[in-house]
Amino acid sequence: MSDEKRIGTVEGAFGNLLHVKFSTPIKQGEVAMVRLDELRLKAEVIEINGDTAKIQVYEDTHGISLGTEVEFLGDLLEAELGPGLLSSIFDGLQNPLEDVAEKAGFFLPRGLYLQPLDRQKKWDFVPIAKVGDELQRGDTLGTTQEMRFTHQIMVPFSLYGRYQVEWVQSAGSYTIDQVVARLRDQSGELHEITMVQKWPVKIPLSEGVKVKPEKMMDTGLRIIDTQFPVMKGGTFCSPGPFGAGKTVMQHHLAKYSSVDVVIVVACGERAGEVVEVLREFPHLIDPHTGDTLMTRTAIICNTSSMPVAARESSIYMGITLGEYYRQMGLDVLVLADSTSRWAQALREMSGRLEEIPGEEAFPAYLASRIAEFYERSGVINTKDGKLGSVTIGGAVSPAGGNFEEPVTQATLSVVGAFLGLSRERSDSRRYPAIDPLISWSKYVEQVGHELSKDVHGWSQMVNRADHILREGNEIGRRMEVVGEEGTAIRDLVVYLKSELYDFAYLQQNAFDKEDCYCPLKRQLKLFSFINQVFEKEFSFDTHDEARSFFLGLQNSIKNINFLPFESDEYFKEMGEVEKQLKG
Ligand code: ADP
Ligand code: MG
């Protein structure tokens, strides 16, 4: 870009969409700053027609009028990447919200953009590359310790081609802006490298080879891990009506999923929920490492009080941070709550662009945008042989809980697992309210293969459990009509088995300190036991006898779920239920 300023003027405004006339060439996706007195409001070029650009402003637009000047900056919307991202809370434009609050108090003023990463903090840099090495983008120059992670300082992704290392900083303590290496490109030009780099947020980036997901991501929720598993590098969505428990579930996954890094994108949901995470996370301990949870988490937070356009940037910011950590060989989980809010923002913008609307006035490209987002998941085998993954989980909040609407449908056609929350289950307080009769996972077979090493025939057991749930459900419905007495004892037993599975296994109490998180090892034990119940041919003389036996067993198991795993009491009670089953 030349140093000469490229300025346009506003010719029309439609909400936060501005029509801007320009004279020097501009490009799709570049950042523009609307100049309003001393204020600079961030915007992005989304359409170019001859000498008029349509730009989307990421801030409240009041005060903008005909003739307001707009400066085009040339860069795409970018994320700043480097050590110090973890534990941070950003908005969709990567403003560090804690610093903003310090500068500006409780209300976020528009046009205030602070640097995402701390400029003063020093990081211990350990050089890896050597003078004379031939490197390419993504290759390691050195490392620094970011909490418990070895943060790789890489050749920036903006550098194409081959570079020779001219100089590397020696081990020591440096700020992210200090030069840590000089690289010479093939035309002889030198490039100074610091510990920060920038990635455009809307373009997927990775170096290495994309490989198939092979490891499960365990979550500590039995219904997910056992019945509808998710894989590291895979995708899932959790649609559900208002109040069914989508956000509670996302918070659970952020806390307990077996990954290294979690990026939480709170996109257009209630502000109070975000505050809750912020209060809670620094005090919660990661069961996998014993560290506080905040040290593995970054939060991108666009509450419903921020302009809708910023939701889009939140989603892209979140996934870009995820890709960056994946490149270091880490397992990352990106959670978005909710993608429906993002889709609404797309719909609003599409309306202002006067595009031909698709179903329910969503733009025709809705499905492809959703697909592109989930396609940024996956496992990458990096050039130095590390495996990093990005797993994406999106909550979807369809109006009235109707899954037939475009956002849910478009999402269902691309994800690997569908964890559908139903009103029926949340109303009867069967939490987590994932409905086992509608949900599915394409990863059952593969995870079964992995778990079969511990429990032989795992996926057959899962399929049988699914079968019993379905059969039990049908018998239950019939029983509502003909009554228990009109039901054969054999059928009643199938029904009771399905209810036992539901109450003692699929449901979990999010507020009990033991039951809220069920480690995989514990699931393997319990599920094997439940399968003995499934297998057993019971012979009861009366309906009452059957019912009371199953109720007793169900309550015993539920109590065991509240006991610390492998404690004395746990073994004692487990021994009791095993006797109960044999007797
Ligand atoms: P959504 O995000 O789907 O609108 P929330 O996640 O905010 O719904 O859940 C609404 C309420 O439902 C919670 O405040 C809580 O009282 C209850 N709830 C949700 N999930 C659970 C759970 N796993 N255990 C107990 N209560 C739950
Ligand atoms: Mg919610």
Characterization of the model:
The chain is built from 15 helices and 26 strands. The strands form five sheets. Strands 8, 18, 19, 20, 21, 22, 23, 24, 25 and 26 form a ten-stranded mixed beta sheet that branches. The chain has a six-stranded antiparallel β-barrel with strand order 1-2-5-4-3-6. Helix 5 (309-326) crosses helix 6 (339-352). The N and C termini lie far apart (81 Å). It is globular and about 90 Å long. The chain folds into four domains: 3-76, Beta Barrel (Thrombin, subunit H), CATH 2.40.10.170; 86-106 and 211-392 and 406-422, Rossmann fold (3-Layer(aba) Sandwich), CATH 3.40.50; 123-200, OB fold (Dihydrolipoamide Acetyltransferase, E2P) (Beta Barrel), CATH 2.40.50.100; 458-582, Bovine Mitochondrial F1-ATPase, ATP Synthase Beta Chain, Chain D, domain3. Strand 1 and strand 2 form a beta hairpin. It is α+β, with helices and mostly antiparallel strands and 583 residues long. Bound molecules: adenosine-5'-diphosphate (ADP) and magnesium ion. Magnesium ion binds at residues 246-247, 269, 337. Magnesium ion binds next to helix 3.
Beta strand count = 26
Q: CATH topology of the largest domain, which one?
A: Rossmann fold
Number of domains: 4
Mean pLDDT: 93
In the CATH hierarchy, the architecture of the largest domain is 3-Layer(aba) Sandwich
Q: Nearest-angstrom radius of gyration? A: 27 Å
Strand content: 15-25%
Ligands (ions, cofactors included): adenosine-5'-diphosphate, magnesium ion
CATH homologous superfamily of the largest domain - what is it? P-loop containing nucleotide triphosphate hydrolases
Report the top-level CATH class of the largest domain.
Alpha Beta
Low-confidence stretches: none
